[in-house]
Amino acid sequence: MKKTKYIPSGGLAFTEEKDMKILAQYAKKGWMVERFTNFGYKLVVGEPKNIDYSLDYQKGADEEYFLFFEEAGWSHVCSIGDEIHLFCATAGTKPIYTDTPTTIEKYEREKKQMGKSALPLLISTIVFLFLSNIDWGFELAGVVMWILGTLSLVLLIFPGLPYLGYQYKLMKLKKGSLH
Fold it and tell me: Which of 52, 47, 46, 48 is nearest to 19 (CA)?
């Protein structure tokens, strides 16, 4: 029997809640999250457990941060870099975020982080694509600008779409329809 399994994510900005439910269903079957992968999660065979998973976004998390969650019944599973942290707890444990204002704070932080990456890429995409339409007197300059604009646009997808996803979540939270 295979001892590892890779589960794709729909993108944390878009399907965070759905991903957490799917991971909990796998845990009931004995497939436990070991770590994040590029586009999802690596699961390993373990004892079936009735647990819930939850994410938090905290740049520069320290020992006190993790201790706070541990005291609330949530165990740290893994992190992506120094910012996205996955926790698990026995099913029914009080959620990490229980009220709208703290949930809004959570998504505002992540939206801001994505925006810091998306804005320069958006500006460079616009500038390069604008410059590609200028008659430079030689064809190669326009082609180079178009290629750079297209490359910037492709790179913009990675922070830009999550930024829009978090913006949408925030809009729904503020209207009171996400929780």
Answer: 52
* pTM (global) more than 0.90: no
Helices (H) and strands (E) in the chain, counts: 4, 6
* Residue 1 one-letter amino acid: M
Token couple for 110: 């992540």
Residue 40 contacts residue 74 (beta carbons within 8 Å) = no
Q: Mean pLDDT in each 10-residue stretch from start to end of the chain (179 residues)?
A: 90 93 97 94 96 92 93 95 93 86 89 94 96 84 93 95 93 77
Q: Given the structure tokens 């082609």, which residue do they identify?
A: 143
Q: In what order do the strands lie in the sheet with 51-57?
A: 51-57, 84-90, 75-80
User: Rounded distance, CA 29 to CA 2, Å?
Assistant: 14
Q: How far is CA 125 from CA 13, 28, 73, 145, 163, in A?
A: 23, 46, 45, 10, 16
Residues 6+ apart with CB under 8 A from 153: 125, 129
Q: How far apart are CA 146 and CA 148, in angstroms?
A: 5
